[in-house]
Amino acid sequence: MTLEAIGGAAGAWLIAALVLGIAELLIPGVFAVFLAIAAAVVGVALLVLPELPAAAQLAAFAAWSIVTVLIGRRWYHDYPVASSDPQLNDRRARLIGSVVVVQAPIGPDGGRVTIGDGSWPARGVVAEVGTRVRIVAIRDGVAIVEPAGG
Fold first, then answer.
1. For the chain, how big is the Rg over CA atoms in Å?
2. What is d(CA 77, CA 74) in angstroms, rounded to the nearest whole number?
3. Fewest CB atoms within 10 A around its CB: which of 9, 73, 147, 149?
4. pLDDT grade, residue 15 (50/70/90)?
5. Domain spanning 91-147: which CATH class is it, in words?
6. Which residue numbers delimit the NfeD-like C-terminal domain (predicted)?
7. Would you kindly state where each structural domain of the chain is located, as residue ranges?
8. Are 113 and 133 in contact (CB under 8 A)?
9. Is the alpha carbon torsion for 23, 24, 28, 31 positive or negative?
10. 103 membership: H or E segment, kind and range
């Protein structure tokens, strides 16, 4: 089937919608699907209004892209996707509760702890080098610690 058989520009928009939909399936990012919907809407509109100028097509695509993205954002806000690891991309949240070792003594002016393979500034409980402490918060890149207990 050629573009002329589908309707020229309408076919091009519908093919663009298909390509964007396939791209979303191959490289999921939950964004291309909204552009695919916008392209499909413009393609269907061109089947009804075949004389729609190119500038109007692009304006309609831009407007529908904005509308579909806003609807999608609202949808994902109202119906969040469940995850087995909701803190996957929140390094600060993943550190809360971790037990770490004091690298430089923690005093009134702070100190340093070893987190993973790095050294982080720390504040909180007074602790000597080698003491195990638990991270209770991260504020402005500083680990707030308390005694680790047991």
1. 27
2. 5
3. 149
4. very high
5. mainly beta
6. 93-147
7. 3-78, 91-147
8. yes
9. positive
10. strand 99-107
